[in-house]
Amino acid sequence: MSSPEIEALVQSLSRLPGLGPRSARRAVLHLLKRRESALQPLISSLQAVDERMLSCGTCGNIDTSDPCHICRDHRRDGSLLAVVEDVADLWAMDRSRLFSGRYHVLGGRLSALDGVGPDDLAIGGLLSRVETGEVAEVVLAMNATMEGQTTLHYLAEQLDRFDITVSTLAHGVPVGGELDYLDEGTIAQALRARRAVG
Amino acid sequence: MSSPEIEALVQSLSRLPGLGPRSARRAVLHLLKRRESALQPLISSLQAVDERMLSCGTCGNIDTSDPCHICRDHRRDGSLLAVVEDVADLWAMDRSRLFSGRYHVLGGRLSALDGVGPDDLAIGGLLSRVETGEVAEVVLAMNATMEGQTTLHYLAEQLDRFDITVSTLAHGVPVGGELDYLDEGTIAQALRARRAVG
Ligand SMILES: [Zn+2]
Ligand SMILES: [Zn+2]
């Protein structure tokens, strides 16, 4: 067995999504052999993220400033708002570079199974943003999962009373798929062909 | 796009073996959502490893002390020495719990392609350890790759002048396989059935 310090690090790393115990061990050895070129830069990057990252009070994005750089970017179209479940979805969508509007992160999706109801999501904040009258179109960019679609229909109902366009991503998002695993091309296609809801 | 701090962290993480850019991004988000329970403990584990880990001057293992805990363990059989290419192989072999001897880490394998010759490996140190007369058997536990086997035969020749048993791992290690990817059972079987070389 290796030392407790190494075992602790293997454990920490193997809890990350995508890394099992074997690959965590390989990763640790990789780092140990490259202290100055890999281990120390990784520590610095993690510390920078830990010290500087904030949650945007407007959209829920994670960034070094609040409001985040997307909410502050005046070249972005403030009349177009994409609602996503998670920050990972926001990043995935933004990497497609096709969306010029702003975002709203729900922080999850409605789930009877996990006991997640409307009050657990940032829905009040979304409605407030729409109430200002600045938003002309809301793109409901939920994941194509059962719970994502339930959330989408719930939001479409809530948004029905506003005189705005409510759309959703077009086919192109595979059924059961999660945005964060899609390539930029698929997301771009789905955005281009987005359709009105309800 | 997310902020430069996050992109830098994604880059650092995606250079680890086993993590691509997508899974690195997922890992970062996982950490950002769990600062106290995941991000900060990971930073501490990495720092502990960076500050405390030493290379053992005797066997090449990485541990908090030099000599390492294996070299200092008097319950270990000092007459039995397993030679491995890499520290990961030492750990993999030690996890099988079947080997009661000590280790010698070469720090690589002979490779004409990568320009790795005998002087680049810890072969002098191995011969010195055998010369003390304490070693009765050397288990050449190279990977079952072309270069591993070339290294094995080179070492078997070097060890020929000593009055010791030179053995290697039995079939059980798949051809082309690397120790670090094997389960403990396979390694244990290969150790049990180890055979004499040359
Ligand atoms: Zn924002
Ligand atoms: Zn040692």
Automatic annotation (TrEMBL), chains A, B:
GO terms for biological process: DNA recombination; DNA repair. Signal peptide: none annotated. InterPro entries: DNA_Rcmb_RecR, Rcmb_RecR, Rcmb_RecR_Znf, TOPRIM_dom, TOPRIM_RecR. Residues 79-174 form the Toprim domain. A zinc finger (C4-type) spans 56-71. Keywords: DNA damage, DNA recombination, DNA repair, Metal-binding, Zinc, Zinc-finger. GO terms for molecular function: DNA binding; zinc ion binding. The keyword DNA damage applies. Belongs to the RecR family. May play a role in DNA repair. It seems to be involved in an RecBC-independent recombinational process of DNA repair. It may act with RecF and RecO. This is Recombination protein RecR. It comes from Pacificimonas flava. The gene is recR.
